[in-house]
Amino acid sequence: MLEAPVPENDAERSAEIERLGLIYSPAEDRFDRITRLAKTHFGVPIVLISIVYKDVQWFKSAQGLSACETGRDVSFCGHAIVHDGPFIIENPLEDDRFRDNPLVLGQPKVRFYAGIPLRSPNGIVLGTLCLIDHKPRTFEESQITELRDFAALVEAEFYYRLLSAEQSVLIQENDSLKRKALLDGLTGLWNKPAIEELLRREVMLSLREQRHLSAMVVDVDHFKRINDTYGHPVGDETLKQVSQRVKSMLRVSDVVGRYGGDEFLLLLPGANEKDGKIIADRIIKRIGETPIQVGDYTFYVTLSIGIAAVSQTGPASTSDLLLERADKTLYEAKARGRACSVAAFELPTDHGSSSSAAGQAA
Known about the structure:
Blueprint: H1 10-19, H2 29-42, E1 46-53, E2 56-63, E3 69-71, H3 77-80, E4 87-89, H4 102-105, E5 112-119, E6 125-133, H5 141-163, H6 165-172, H7 176-180, H8 192-209, E7 213-220, H9 223-230, H10 232-248, E8 255-258, E9 263-269, H11 273-289, E10 292-294, E11 297-299, E12 303-309, H12 319-335, E13 341-343, H13 352-361
Parallel strand pairs: 12-13
Antiparallel strand pairs: 1-2, 1-6, 2-3, 4-5, 5-6, 7-9, 7-12, 8-9, 10-11
Helix pairs in contact: 2-5, 5-6, 9-10, 12-13
């Protein structure tokens, strides 16, 4: 038997696992849902989310296996985490590395293994999503692609854990009734008081950890015209569809809230202004090319977006100043004809004329 190798960055891996709270923690339905679906989809008896940590592999989620952990030295996943891609063993009895492995000779009698490395939001391999069968089997390229897709779902949950650093804290600080009061009744997003509180927290975190943070103020162009033409119920449905589309284009670590009647506030941890500009233009393009459909009505909408980022030493170093700066860039986007984005670095040195023009355009 060949023992699983130890990556050079193993100490860093362990620290990341601990930071995300993935080791020796209760089962979570967010992970169990994925392993249940994978078990049914691939028709295997065992599916695991295995976290390889120090001298053990800990099963964050396990379908078809009662054990919570095994030794890392005998683990298949310990081998899988040193591979960039899929690690497939179609018959361990025919593989010199595993033919005398205790997990092959004894329970759970592994006769097939397929694992995909799982990475943290920082790109560090933490463990695997793996399939195990009691009989040898082949694994087609299309199935590898599907297993990668399931692994991506697990990694998305890792992102959620990270993000929601601040969002999760806000949730945990409030009981169910108070949490309900933090949500916008129409879109289901954070409401204005909540998104402003999250902005304050994210700015503080950004300054403390010296990492980027971009804020975007997003406005639906000529929204009053939609209400006047089609009626307020259609306007409400338009806001719901726009919010869903915007949210679907962001990372799990990003924060979205309804900031006003037809305005949204987006917070992008780790993104500088140039990153924010790229994302904003992508959102504008996607929204602009797909029509809104409400009942018998079909029409297009456009967005104007203003972007600003936290500066460690500059003007946008508080939540109020960051928001003020993002508002100025939104006004500039409107002054330039709407259906566009403007980032703070694109503003002229003297903002006075821009703000005045924007006021007339708004």
